[in-house]
Design brief:
This protein starts with 18 loop residues before the first strand and ends in a 6-residue tail after the last helix. The strands form six sheets. It has a three-stranded mixed β-sheet with strand order 10-12-11. The chain has 304 residues and is α+β, with helices and mostly antiparallel strands. The mean pLDDT is 92. It is elongated and about 105 Å long. It has nine helices and 13 strands. It folds into three domains: 44 residues, Cysteine Rich Protein (Ribbon); 46 residues, no CATH class; 174 residues, no CATH class. Bound molecules: zinc ion (ZN) (5 copies).
């Protein structure tokens, strides 16, 4: 005696026509769409969380939407580091934000010297000295808590534009720099006699988290000057300042912090990226407090 099939939809025995789908048998009228409840007529359907649904219903009601054009995302689509989902074709249509890497569709683009800025970065941008001041005081406290002493030197912050920043940077620093240390070196007989540092200059309009990381990097340079540590090779000096920013970004424990920390870790630059990785290897071996103490007393990188 053949076993009578049971409908997975209603639980009753099936005496007439039935269909086989998703490893079960069904009354045709009970094989229904999980979205609209109507029978799925035809052989093709979408499965969503184990339940069948019409392609149309899936497309219109279930599928995620593209963050940029709002179209339902079915089939292949892209997700950026921030979790933003979007149609594949936008990758080649829109530029990336200069600060966070997000794609920026035309209607949201804001052109700046460094490239395009996205609305997310604009929403936290530090544009004025008033906005920067409380953040800066908090950064000074953070650096102090890392064991970096500035011998009560008053440190100023100046928000500036590209032209002014280029002036502070001089010739030998990469043009994509977002901050600079404001210092004057006094020369005697062609040799540097002493360096006086007034503070740090940071490009205005950076999103808040990036502003903080750039400022911390520059505060690293200021500390080296204040401590008279002037003979480090460039990779070691930049690597140390990057490490300071990296520590700051990591402890923020925010998506922005993680994004910028990862950018430092993966930076292919032979000075900044390689320098960071070499300095971090030393710090991993000595521990940060001992690293700082040793740098301060010997004026050179600890050997491990
Ligand atoms: Zn049934
Ligand atoms: Zn449906
Ligand atoms: Zn799209
Ligand atoms: Zn952005
Ligand atoms: Zn630097």
């Amino acid at each position: 005696m053949a076993i009578q099939p049971t409908c997975k939809g209603c639980g009753q025995l099936i005496w007439g026509d039935y269909l086989n789908a998703l490893g079960a048998t069904w009354h045709p009228e009970h094989f229904t769409c999980a979205v609209c409840g109507r029978p799925i007529n035809g052989t093709s359907f979408q499965v969503h969380q184990g339940d069948p649904c019409h392609f149309e219903c899936f497309r219109e009601r279930i599928a995620p939407r593209c963050a940029y054009c709002g179209k339902p995302l079915v089939g292949e689509y892209l997700v950026d580091q921030w979790g933003t989902r979007y149609c594949k074709e936008h990758q080649s249509q829109y530029p990336h934000c200069a600060y966070c890497g997000r794609l920026v569709p035309p209607q949201q683009q804001e052109q700046r010297n460094d490239g395009v800025r996205c609305p997310v970065c604009r929403s936290t941008a530090i544009e004025t000295a008033e906005a920067a001041k409380p953040v800066f005081s908090q950064l000074i406290r953070w650096v102090g808590a890392q064991g970096l002493r500035y011998n009560n030197l008053p440190i100023n912050l100046e928000l500036c534009d590209r032209t002014k920043l280029a002036h502070y940077l001089g010739e030998h620093t990469p043009m994509h720099s977002l901050g600079a240390t404001m210092s004057t070196t006094y020369m005697q007989a062609g040799r540097p006699l002493r360096t006086e540092v007034r503070g740090v200059a940071v490009l205005h309009g950076l999103p808040s988290t990036l502003f903080q990381g750039v400022t911390i990097h520059e505060l690293g340079h200021v500390w080296l000057v204040v401590q008279g540590i002037s003979n480090l090779p460039t990779w070691a000096e930049e690597g140390f300042c990057e490490l300071l920013s990296y520590r700051y970004y990591s402890q923020l424990d925010t998506p922005e912090g993680r994004y910028h920390a990862t950018a430092i870790e993966r930076n292919p630059d032979p000075v900044y990226g390689e320098g960071f990785r070499r300095v971090r290897a030393i710090v991993d071996a000595t521990g940060f407090p001992r690293f700082i103490e040793s740098l301060q007393t010997t004026k050179r990188l600890p050997t491990v």
